[in-house]
Amino acid sequence: MASLWEYANPKKFIDTTSRFIPWLFGSALICLVTGLVWGFFFTPDDFRQGSTVKIIYLHVPSALMAINAWLMMLVASLIWIVRRHHVSALAARAAAPVGVVMTLIALATGAIWGQPMWGTWWAWDPRLTSFLILFLFYLGYIALWEAIENDDTAADLTSILCLVGSVFALLSRYAVNFWNQGLHQGASLSLDKEENVHDVFYHPLLICIAGFVLLFIALVFLRTQTEIRARRMRALMARERLTA
Amino acid sequence: MKALLLRDIRLAIRAGGGFGLGLAFFLIVVVLVPFGVGPQSELLSRIAAGTLWIGALLACLLSLDRIFALDWEDGSLDLLATAPLPMEAIAAIKALAHWLTTGLPLVLAAPILAVLLNLPAAGYGPLILSLLLGTPALSMIGTFGAALTVGLKRGGLLLSLLVLPLYVPTLIFGAEAARRGVDGFDTTTPMLMLAGITCGTIALLPFAAAAVLRVNLR
Amino acid sequence: MIPDLGKYADAVMSAYAVSLLLLVLLVIVSWRRAAKVKRDLEEIEGKGQSDG
C-alpha cells in the first residue's frame, strides 16, 4: 500500500512526540506560573515605568516567539523544498497559528504598555510596526494554506511564500527603522554584560521565556500530529470516493 | 520573447484588457482623499506625495490578477510552459508587460494628479523619479503574487493580502524619497534603496514566480 | 494580595488578561481539534478495516 509507506515517517513522528507532549505542556505550565507569579508579585516597580514594567514578562517572550515561530516555519519550508518530508511541511502549517497568536500578544501587550508611556494607544514605533507587518505575513501564509485544496500544491506554494516573505520581512524591518526612528527602548536583552533590563527583572523573565518556548514546542508537536492525521484522513476519504 | 511581450501589451490595451482600469482607479483614489481628509490645501500638499504613492500602489494591485488569469483560463499558460522559453523569462516578460501597461502610465499620470493634491513644485521631480524606480518592483512582486493565486477562483482578495506586506518596503522608500524631495532634502538614500529593491526583485523573483507557476501547472 | 499597581493597574491587568486569554484559547482550540481529528481518523480507519 503506497500510502502506508508515506505514513511511515509521519507515524514515527506521532509515536515519538506523543510521549513528550504531556511533559512539554506540564513543564511549560510550571515555568509560566513560576515566572509570571515571581515577576508579578515579587519584583519591584521600575523607576520610570512604574508597575507597567510587569508587562515585560508577557511582551518580551511573546515577541521572541513570534519571530522564532516564523524562523522555524522558514527552516521547515526549506526542508520541505529540499527533502520533501511531509512532516516538515505540516509542521510549518501547524506552527503558523501559534506564531500569529504570539504576534497578537506581542502587539496587544506592546500597545497597552505603550499607552501610559507614550500617551497614545498606537504609536507607529518601528518595533511595533514590524510586528504588525509580521502579523500580515502570518495571515497571508495561513490564508494560502486554507485556499488551496491539493495538499502537495499547498505545501509547495506556502513554502515558497515563506521564503520570499522572510526576505521581505527582513527588508521591511530595515525599511521601517528607516521610516521612523522610534520610541522603543534599545534591545532589552543583550548577551553582553550591558543589560538594559535590570537583573532583578532578568531571572523571572528568563523563566517566562522558557515557558513560552516549551509551550510553543508542545503546541507545534500537538498541532503537527493533528495535521498529519487530517492529511491521512483526506487521503483515505479521497480513496473511498474513488473506490465507492 | 519579444513576441510574448507584444502579445501581452496588445491584450492589455484591447478593450476589456484593463488598460485604463489602473489609471481610473488612481484618479478615483486621488479624488476621494480630499473628500476624506478635508480640502485644506496646506494639509493636502503635506500628504500629496504619500497619497500619490499609495494610489499608484493600489492601482497596481488592482490589475495584478490579470497578469496570468486570462492565459490560465484559456489554457495558453500551459502552452507557454511547453514553449522553448524558460519559465523564468515568461514571468519576467509578464512583469514587464504589466509595468508597461499599468506602472508606466501611472508614473505619467502622477504629475497631473499631483496638481489635484497641491503637490509643491519641488516635489514633482522626486515623485516621478521615485515612481519610475519603484513601479517596476511593484509589477515584479505583483507577478509573483499573481502566480501564487493563479489557480484560485476568488483569488483577488487573497492576492491583495499576500502582496501588500511585500509592497511595504517599496512604499516606504518610494514615499520617503518623494516626501524628502518635497521638503528639499537629499533623496539619495531612499532612491538608492528603491533602485536596489527593484533590481533585487527583478533578479530574484522571476525564479520564485517560475517555481510557483510550475507547481500550479502540474 | 495583588500588589499595589498604582495608576497603571488597568494597563497591567488588561495586558495580563488579554495575553493569558489568548494563550488559553490557543491551547484549548489546539487540544480540541487534535482530539476531534484523532477520533474521526480512528473512525474512518476502523470502518476501512471492517469493510476491507
Automatic annotation (TrEMBL), chain B:
Which residue positions does the secretion signal occupy? none
User: Which top-rank group of organisms is this from?
Assistant: Bacteria
Q: Which InterPro entries match?
A: Cyt_c_biogenesis_CcmB (IPR003544), Cyt_c_CcmB_bac (IPR026031)
Q: Which UniProt keywords apply?
A: Cell inner membrane, Cell membrane, Cytochrome c-type biogenesis, Membrane, Transmembrane, Transmembrane helix, Transport
**Membrane-topology annotation of the record:** Multi-pass membrane protein
Compartments (UniProt record):
Cell inner membrane
Regions crossing the membrane: 12-37, 43-64, 96-121, 127-150, 157-178, 190-213
The UniProt entry, under Pfam families, shows:
CcmB
Q: Which NCBIfam families match?
A: ccmB
Similarity comment = Belongs to the CcmB/CycW/HelB family.
Query: Function, please?
Result: Required for the export of heme to the periplasm for the biogenesis of c-type cytochromes.
Its protein name is: Heme exporter protein B
